[in-house]
Design goal:
The structure holds two protein chains of two kinds. Chain A is mainly β. Chain A has no helices and eleven strands. In chain A, strand 7 and strand 8 (73-78) form a beta hairpin. Chain A starts with a strand and ends with a strand. Chain B contains no helices and twelve strands. Chain B has strands at 3-5, 10-14, 19-21, 24-26, 33-39, 46-52, 59-61, 64-69, 74-79, 88-95, 104-106, 110-115. Classes of the chains: A mainly beta, B mainly beta. Chain A binds chain B through residues 32, 34, 42-44, 46, 49, 51, 57, 88, 90, 92, 94, 98-107, 109, and chain B through 31, 33, 35, 37, 42-47, 50, 52, 91, 95, 97-104, 106-109.
Chain lengths: 113, 116
């Protein structure tokens, strides 16, 4: 069966510091991968998606970037965090068909102070 | 453009009551998929159900049931005999044809509180 991992689970970072969040998927190959952000009390905002190694698409302009160095690894980064980057970050995977279901990881709660 | 509306921001019910969470969607796609996810306090989104636009049969899974009506563009979710463990935020979502990846539009969620 497929499993998706995210770490760290929680993170408190000062403004201006770098960020690296990692997401890995087990039990599947060539997944589509997604990063979402959920601000407190709000819905989900798609940040990035990837259909293959090195292929990253950004949905919204922002202070963040994403990379996919391996087939089942998806990384969310920032060089300098802003207060507005605080939130709950969720990684998701899905199969290759555009109609496949997205399955989510446990999330990372980021607080920028 | 796709849109999902969950008009109920928060609902409180007493344990054992039935509760229905509303979801209304908009899409121009003829083929699309509808989803419900549960987000407990721990934060992880848990997949509950997926329906395609050609299957309007209602579905029941234990205490959960879903009513899909294309005529009203609705995909409502009913919990029968609610329990405290049902307390969570529930998201309705819509996915259409996007050519290569799953373009999912989420509603803003309905927070359900089940009071013992």
């Amino acid at each position: 069966s497929q499993t998706i991992h995210q770490w760290p689970a929680t993170l408190v970072q000062p403004v201006g510091s770098p960020l690296s969040l990692e997401c890995t998927v087990e039990g599947t190959s060539n997944p589509n991968l997604y990063w979402y952000r959920q601000a407190a009390g709000r819905g989900l905002q798609l940040l990035f998606y990837s259909v293959g190694i090195g292929q990253i698409s950004s949905e919204v302009p922002q202070n963040l970037s994403a990379s996919r160095p391996q087939d089942r690894q998806f990384i969310l980064s920032s060089k300098k965090l802003l207060l507005s980057d605080s939130g709950f970050y969720l990684c998701a995977w899905a199969g290759l068909a555009s109609t496949d279901t997205q399955y989510f990881g446990p999330g990372t709660r980021l607080t920028v102070l | 453009a796709q849109k999902v509306t969950q008009a109920q921001t928060e609902i409180s019910v007493v344990e054992k009551e039935d509760v229905t969470l509303d979801c209304v969607y908009e899409t121009r796609d003829t083929t699309y998929y509808l989803f419900w996810y549960k987000q407990p306090p721990s934060g992880e989104l848990v997949f509950l159900i997926r329906r395609n636009s050609f299957d309007e049969q209602n579905e029941i899974s234990g205490r959960y049931s879903w009513n899909f009506q294309k005529s009203t563009s609705s995909f409502n979710f009913t919990i029968t005999a609610s329990q405290v463990v049902d307390s969570a935020v529930y998201f309705c979502a819509l996915s259409g044809s996007s050519g290569g990846y799953q373009k999912v539009t989420f509603g803003t969620g309905t927070k359900l509180q089940v009071i013992p």
